[in-house]
Amino acid sequence: ISKYAYGEDYHHVVKDKLKILLRNMQQEIGEIHGRCFVDSAPVMERAWASKAGIGWVGKHSLLINKTQGSFFFLAEIIVDAELEYDAPFATDHCGTCTACMDACPTGAIVAPYEVDARRCISYLTIELADAIPEALRPLMGNRIYGCDDCQLCCPWNRFATVGDPDFAPRNGLDASTLASLFAWTEAEFDTRL
Fold it and tell me: Which of 34, 59, 88, 169 could form a disulfide with 79 if both were Cys (CB 3.0 to 4.6 A apart)?
C-alpha cells in the first residue's frame, strides 16, 4: 500500500486545512473569493508549484522540495485577488541521478520526466477500470494500492517526514500482509478505512 494511503484520506484532511487558510486570508486581506482544490479539478499542480518556488519536477515526474523530498501533497486555493508571489524554482537538482528510473518495477518512467501511466503501478491499482495487463502482473510484486519505489530510492527523500499526525499509519496498514488485508470483511474495510 502506498505510503500516502496509510493515514487519513488526504483529500479531506488537506481540503479542511485549505478552507481554514482561505478564511484566514479573507480576514487578513479583506473580501476575496476563492475555491480550494485537492485533486478535484484539472489543475496543473506540479507546474504551478514549481512556478511558485516550492520545488522542481523530478525525473519521476513528481515535485521535489530540497528540504522535504517528494512525500507531500499538492493542493491549491484559487482566489480573485492578486497576491505577492515567490520566484519560480528554476534549478533541477536531479543531475545525473537515475535512481527513480532504475527502481520502477514496470519501467513506467520511460525517459527522464516522462511516465507512461499505462505501466505505472499506481495507475494500474487505483485508476485502471479494466483488468491489469497480464504482462505487467509479475512485475507488480505484492503491491495492491499504489507504489512508492520511485520515491523511496530518491536521495532527496532522506529528508521526508510525516508532517501531520493525520497521515501517520493507521490500523497497521504499514505492516499488514496481503493475506490479512484480503481477509478483511466489507464491514472491517469500511471501519478501518
Answer: 34
> Of the residues 9, 16, 39, 164, which is catalytic?
39
**All cell numbers assigned to 90:** 528554476
Q: Quick check: is 39 catalytic?
A: yes
The number of CA neighbours under 13 Å toward the Cβ of 119 is 14
C-alpha cell at 191: 471501519
- Looking at residue 144, the DSSP 8-state letter turns out to be S
Beta-carbon-side half-sphere exposure of residue 46 (alpha carbons within 13 Å): 11
**pTM, 2 dp:** 0.89
Q: What is the pLDDT of residues 111-142, one digit of tens each?
A: 999 999 999 999 999 999 999 999 999 999 98
| Cβ atoms of 25 and 76 closer than 8 Å | no
DSSP, collapsed to helix, strand or coil, labels residue 124 as: helix
Residue with cell 528554476: 90
Q: Is 32 in contact with 68 (CB distance < 8 Å)?
A: no
